Amino acid sequence: MAPQRKPSSVSQNISSSPFYFALYVILVLLGNVGNTTVMAVVGQSLLRETGAIRSSDVILVNMAFSNLMVSLVRNTVVMVSDLGVEIFLTRDMCHLMMGIWVWLRSANVWSTFFLSAFHFQTLRRVAPPIITLHGPRGPPKSLILCFILIWSFNLIYAIPAFIFSKNGDENSTETLMLVSSTTRPLMGCIWDFPSVYSGLAFATSSMVIHESLPICLMNITNLGSLLTLYAHGHSRNTTHKSQDTPVITRIPAERRAAKVILALNVLFISSWGTNVISVNYFNYNRGSSTEFLLIIARFANMSFIAFSPIVLAVGHRKLRAFIKSVLSHITSVFG
């Protein structure tokens, strides 16, 4: 590996504009610091729990972990590259990094959807959860199984990236872009499919499996959660209650959770959707707006990772308490 100093044209446009580059650095730092904070605060509260562990907090830690991994392994490297330092990897290292990028990005999408799906399943539960005071401490086995399935299935999906990639040089250009992996050559790594059609087939399957399907499922589960809360609130005003009505004992808390998850979904869909449109425009219609759209895709790609910790902090009690404590400490020091 040898450092070079010939950034791509999109990278040049961003690094040449102080505003764009400053905004890019701020988003990357927000993603790194914010998701680390979520993992530390929520994870510490889980370790201190003496009773049953909240499954929702475990899911938040998993989502923050996937966000942080994408931000560190992908977005931070892109930021360093925009500073003008290009590192060109060997062919074997490109196989490894392309696979890791696809794996982490795909797992990140489904980890985000899992939060919405879990909340919907919780609201639809007819019977209250069974909590054993003297049972084994830790998250439910079914939750651990879901995490294993998310990370293992996405690793299987990423196998083509471990195979059909290669190392290029400073003159290499990307001929195929995937939202789940790359929007330009990074560290000299580019796709190397046997044919154009096989590359587009993989890009299309990625668009369906990891872009369109999660967004549709997020909309369905979030709408279902809101309708369930509405139905339960309406049933409380009537004298007759069906036995099949979901048991929701903490309506105000569940409504706050639904609003936070809705905000996360809107943030994810807006950033993901912008990225999808920009990248697929490049793949299927190389027009005059390609370069500008790729810059938009770059910012949209990291906006969810950067802002999701802020959304979580608004709705999570312990995160709010931690931020208030930090702010009060800062004001006392500089006040």
From TrEMBL:
GO CC terms: membrane
Q: Where in the cell is it found?
A: Membrane
> Could you list the residue ranges that cross the membrane?
20-47, 59-80, 100-121, 142-164, 260-282, 294-315
Q: What span is annotated as the signal peptide, if there is one? A: none
Q: Which Pfam families match?
A: 7tm_1
InterPro entries in alphabetical order: GPCR_Rhodpsn (IPR000276), GPCR_Rhodpsn_7TM (IPR017452)
Q: Which residues form the G-protein coupled receptors family 1 profile domain?
A: 34-312
State the SUPFAM superfamilies in the record.
Family A G protein-coupled receptor-like
Please give the Gene Ontology molecular function terms for this protein: G protein-coupled receptor activity
Where does the UniProt entry say this protein principally localizes? membrane
Keyword Plastid carried by entry: no
Provide the topology term for how it sits in the membrane.
Answer: Multi-pass membrane protein
Q: Which controlled-vocabulary keywords does the entry list?
A: G-protein coupled receptor, Membrane, Receptor, Sensory transduction, Transducer, Transmembrane, Transmembrane helix
Which domain of life does this protein belong to? Eukaryota
Q: Which Gene3D superfamilies match?
A: Rhodopsin 7-helix transmembrane proteins (1.20.1070.10)
Name of the molecule in the record: Olfactory receptor class A-like protein 4
